[in-house]
Design brief:
By secondary structure, this protein is α+β, with helices and mostly antiparallel strands. It has a domain of about 90 residues: 2-Layer Sandwich (Alpha-Beta Plaits), CATH 3.30.70. The protein is built from four helices and five strands. Strand 2 and strand 3 form a beta hairpin. Helix 3 runs antiparallel to helix 4. About 30% of the residues are buried. The structure holds flavin mononucleotide (FMN).
């Protein structure tokens, strides 16, 4: 499953740390893997695992007051996981090389800023594959 949501104003480093520590524990208990991108006030997250684990986790995430206006981009069966290394991995995309990130935004959304709301499911997936720290060490 891939979705986006909007962070509340003032969301800070401690919030992100809290989200990540809870995600790592909870997701590993239910066999979820994935990536959480944060930038430009937006979250883009991919959750991989059983339909039940994804549904239950997503419903809990929706209740979280640290974000709002979530939109499901895609929820579909896949042949295999892509983010097996991460129970959840945060990529703060604003912190990476601006030049390379701009190239990726342009490549996948035709925008100069991080704009996942304009991206198709396939574009979101490819974008996240390219920024996955487990595979993109030389790229980003
Ligand atoms: C954008 C976003 C993504 C989140 N992703 C996850 C996640 O993948 N797994 C998870 O358990 N909680 C995630 N959370 C946190 C949940 O909303 C919730 O705070 C947490 O699961 C509560 O855990 P607890 O019941 O162990 O305290 C996310 C929150 C936000 C705002």
């Amino acid at each position: 499953m891939i979705y986006i949501s909007r962070a509340v104003p003032g969301l800070g480093y401690q919030d992100l740390r809290d989200i990540m520590s809870k995600s790592e524990v909870n997701n590993s208990h239910v066999g979820l893997t994935g990536l959480l991108c944060f930038g430009n006030g937006l979250f883009l997250q991919i959750l991989e695992g059983s339909r039940l684990a994804i549904s239950q986790t997503y419903h809990r995430i929706l209740q979280d007051p640290r974000h709002h206006s979530a939109e499901i981009i895609v929820f579909e069966p896949v042949l295999h996981r892509e983010f097996v290394q991460w129970s959840m991995k945060l990529v703060q995309i604003d912190e990476n090389s601006p030049e390379k990130m701009r190239r990726l935004y342009w490549k996948y959304s035709g925008e100069v800023d991080f704009a996942p709301q304009t991206m198709t499911p396939a574009q979101c997936l490819q974008f996240m594959l390219e920024i996955d720290p487990a595979r993109s060490l030389a790229k980003v």
